[in-house]
Amino acid sequence: MLCSPEELLQKNQALSNTWQRYQALPSFDSFVELAVSINSFTEFLIDKGITALHHASHQLEQVTLTLFSEDVAHPLPQAALNDLNERVLALGRMANTHATATADLAERRHDPLHPAPHDMPMDQSWLIGHDQSAWADLQAQLGYFGMAAQFITWQQPLPDNAGVAPLLLLDMSSLPEAEWSSRIQTLRQRFVMGQLIGLGVRSDFERMQQALRGGCDSCLLEGTPSHTIVEHILELNERQDQEAYRVLIVEDSKTASHLIRRTLEENQIDTKIVNDPRQTLNALRQFNPDLILMDMYMPNCTGVEAARIIRQHSEFLSTPIVYLSGETNVALQVDAMRLGGDHFLTKPFNPVFLNAIVKSKIERYRALRRTMYNDSLTGLLNHSSGKNTLDMLLSSVAHDGGFLSVVMMDIDHFKQVNDTYGHPVGDQVIRSLSWLLKQRLRKQDIICRYGGEEFLIGLPHTDAENAFAIMNRIRQDFSQIRHPVDDRHFVATASGGIATYPLYQNGDSLIKAADEALYQAKRDGRNRIHADED
Ligand SMILES: Nc1nc2c(ncn2[C@@H]2O[C@H](COP(=O)(O)OP(=O)(O)OP(=O)(O)O)[C@@H](O)[C@H]2O)c(=O)[nH]1
């Protein structure tokens, strides 16, 4: 996913402003500001998947953190100042190059004569190697997922119009090891925003290190099957599409709460502040945070009391609570943790550390939620969360007015797939359909694994005719995907049934009608979509 050039330049400007402020007024406080700004820029670059810039920013962050101590005198020694200055300037130059390239790309994407297909989020894909026939299967599979990769050899130069943020798949096994570093570095420098994936890398430490150090974003080992490579690429796309983290700040001091908000929002974390702890439950319900930052000592109610009240509500039992306090008494901290807390940060907090703690706790919390609400084989919503989400979507569509199409999709003769090739191969077929759905549908659509090989899909603001066109295209492409088994492959097909709101008024009747339409498609011969339009 591309970030807007304005956003990147703004972030970079904020960093160079804090650096200038530090130089004009070198104190511990202005150095803290600088560290926060660098940390924020680094996190931003990780979120946007801008690897090359991230590398430079991360190094700058590391240098800053080694100087982050109240014992270090300010201004810093001249050598350290020069080093920081060079790093900030180099980062600025890279950000400018990057922003210009992104702006060019955005302009081309909005060119009405050459519109980008909606199902191809990456710029372009290239496969660089020696023997194309070795990669024919991978090329075909990528094509069905809408990510066709063009093949060129290591001897051919990539054309000028190779794309600004291309996906580059590098067959490392066909390149002499002595050339790895220079080849990867050259590609990295040219395609700052590209995704570089090394293929066919042997699983020893030195080779992996060489590929990653040169600038590969990731490496896949020798012998990795095509479908695993495709999944890896699809996952890369998906990772960049996460919802922003949300933190509820319960803190009576307006100054402290705004300081925390600023630190977190600099790191793209959404926040909501509650200055009166008695408002916490309301705020939790409205804002649905991933984490609560809780002041220990507030009038009317202590943080520990508030945490105990929160933990009485089953829906907030696992929401992480991090206490903020001037309290350094370890025994009290241990007690506070026993009574429903997850971590303790003492004031004045180190903002870089606060951000790191918050992010790591949220990552774990989200992973836990995924196990509760998502299906483990496909990562899609599971049966009950899919139905609940459909009901919520239906009320919002009913409120705004418009259509909502519900699709039941089911893999044909799936029992035969299992019986012929075995259950694990059957699982792989289920995963392929789920990847295809994720790849093709919009973020606001619902995709749920409803049962074994059955999927429930909700397409808001989509009438039956459009839903048919979208699902029929997915059906066609699914039927082209080759599922590997030993040294052969086979194909599978799927059928679908569609029912649409407002013809059917509630979630259950929509699902029932879509299910009946699905069985009509099965009766009509399978590998087809049937829309209920009675
Ligand atoms: N591999 C695998 N198989 C599953 C899973 N869940 C259910 N199944 C199998 O899916 C098969 C579904 O078969 P049926 O409902 O008879 O339907 P079908 O063979 O697909 O036939 P039609 O739907 O009529 O085209 C059963 O054999 C289940 O055991 C799963 O998670 N993995």
Beta-strand content estimate = 15-25%
Q: Which sheet architecture does the biggest sheet show?
A: 5 strands, parallel
| Mean of pLDDT | 87
| Termini separation | 41 Å
The CATH superfamily title of the largest domain = Reverse transcriptase/Diguanylate cyclase domain
Extended strand count: 17
Question: What structural category do the secondary elements indicate?
Answer: alpha/beta
The CATH topology name of the largest domain reads Alpha-Beta Plaits
| Sheet with most strands: strand arrangement | 2-1-3-4-5
Q: What's this, in brief?
A:
The protein is of the alpha/beta class and 534 residues long. The protein has 18 helices and 17 strands.
Descriptive account of the structure:
Keywords: Phosphoprotein. It holds the Pfam family GGDEF. The chain is built from 18 helices and 17 strands. Helix 6 (180-190) links the parallel strand 3 and strand 4 (195-201). It has four domains: 5-109, Four Helix Bundle (Hemerythrin (Met), subunit A) (Up-down Bundle), CATH 1.20.120; 125-239, Rossmann fold (3-Layer(aba) Sandwich), CATH 3.40.50; 246-373, Rossmann fold (3-Layer(aba) Sandwich); 383-531, 2-Layer Sandwich (Alpha-Beta Plaits), CATH 3.30.70.270. With 534 residues, it is α/β, with parallel strands linked by helices. Mean pLDDT is 87; it is low at 109-122. The structure holds guanosine-5'-triphosphate. The site of guanosine-5'-triphosphate has 15 residues, from strand 11, helix 15 and helix 16.
